[in-house]
Amino acid sequence: MSENPHIIEIYAPKYEGERFEAHRFPLDLIEDLYVLREMTIEMAKQIYLEKNKDRQRIPKNFTRDISFELEGISPGSTIPKIILVTGLTGMFPQANHAYFEEAPIRIIKAIEVAHTGGDNITDYANPEVLRYFDHFGKKLRDGESIRFSKVDGGHAVLNKESRKRLLLASSRSNEYTASLSIRGLVTALDKDRRSFDIQLLNGVKIKGTYGEEHTKNLQEALFGLEDGQKVLIKATGIFSASDKLKAIHDVEEMNLLDEFDVPSRLEELSLLKSGWLDGNQGAPLNGEGLNWLSEAFENFYNSDDLPLPAAFPTPEGNVQFEWSFDNNEVSLEVDFKTQNADYFELDTASKKENSEQLNLTEEGDWKKLNELLLEIKGRTE
């Protein structure tokens, strides 16, 4: 490449969401930048063939002296700045640079169409290009997005929904992929094919494939099937257009769960129907409330130093947690409407009682709950 290359900024994707507020770039998203490079090259090739109808193949040195580089992470949420570096022929950029400069514009336009609707996505990017979204943006969580600036002003937004539309536009089978976390029971294992069956907590069975590093945990989970041994799997899911999970692959993590694993129990409680108590009484539990409580419990409860509680539904459609410490019984009834909780502690030997009201939207009140339980644990050990 020449000593004074032609340099332009082609992407400054702004990652938005709680994870990015500290202006740091999570390492598990580094793959996004590599995939964006590969997708841009594929898009440039598509543009070349569109503009050179007489050519059947891409020139041999099409990507020669073309480089994509990360210039830095800009403040304002998390913004990796990506530049295109092109060698010069004399005083001018190489002829192929134009295809690489147009490619990001077309990709961003396809993202915009996927987000806003209207035009046909494949008018801007063919299925070969769109398939790169199988990996780009795969790790976005609910409420997160990647915002791209357009050359003519405005923005194009990639979130879980617009990514789904991009993948469906590229798929002949009308499927898309997304990262997921699931809990369930391993019901079958085929070591030769590196495949397994998992029964989700709603009873649905899904097939999956795995790497050798997960064999031990899978075997332990299958051995503990009759005892109800559950697992947590983080992997890539294959979904239908109607969001039905069809299979899982690319397992990243597989962990055996405690028998009192709270998110598993809350997911089971979400399946209760109206009248679950006696056919008449027993309100169904609010799904959004259960998801909130599950996430809050995982984030703020001190499970490293404290035992996990048993979790029960209440007739009103709320949740009550219960702990036993020798002669001390503790309960915490959570109200989904107010997101408050009534804490009650009873020493069955001395009959001494203690009660508190906690606001479970406040991290400080979770800390107070942890301290109350740790104090009881310390007295009874």
Can you offer a commentary on this structure?
By secondary structure, the chain is an alpha+beta fold. The protein has three domains: 6-172, no CATH class; 178-256, Beta Barrel (OB fold (Dihydrolipoamide Acetyltransferase, E2P)), CATH 2.40.50; 262-380. It has helices at residues 30-51, 97-116, 127-130, 160-170, 215-223, 262-269, 287-300, 363-380, and strands at residues 6-11, 14-16, 66-74, 79-86, 88-89, 92-93, 145-149, 155-158, 175-190, 195-200, 205-209, 231-240, 245-256, 310-313, 319-325, 328-335, 340-347, 353-359. Strand 10 (195-200) and strand 11 (205-209) form a beta hairpin. Helix 1 crosses helix 2 and helix 2 (97-116) packs across helix 4 (160-170). The N and C termini lie far apart (70 Å). The relative contact order is 0.07.
Topology:
Blueprint: E1 6-11, E2 14-16, H1 30-51, E3 66-74, E4 79-86, E5 88-89, E6 92-93, H2 97-116, H3 127-130, E7 145-149, E8 155-158, H4 160-170, E9 175-190, E10 195-200, E11 205-209, H5 215-223, E12 231-240, E13 245-256, H6 262-269, H7 287-300, E14 310-313, E15 319-325, E16 328-335, E17 340-347, E18 353-359, H8 363-380
Parallel strand pairs: 11-13
Antiparallel strand pairs: 1-4, 2-7, 3-4, 5-6, 7-8, 9-10, 9-12, 10-11, 12-13, 14-15, 15-16, 16-17, 17-18
Helix pairs in contact: 1-2, 2-4, 6-7
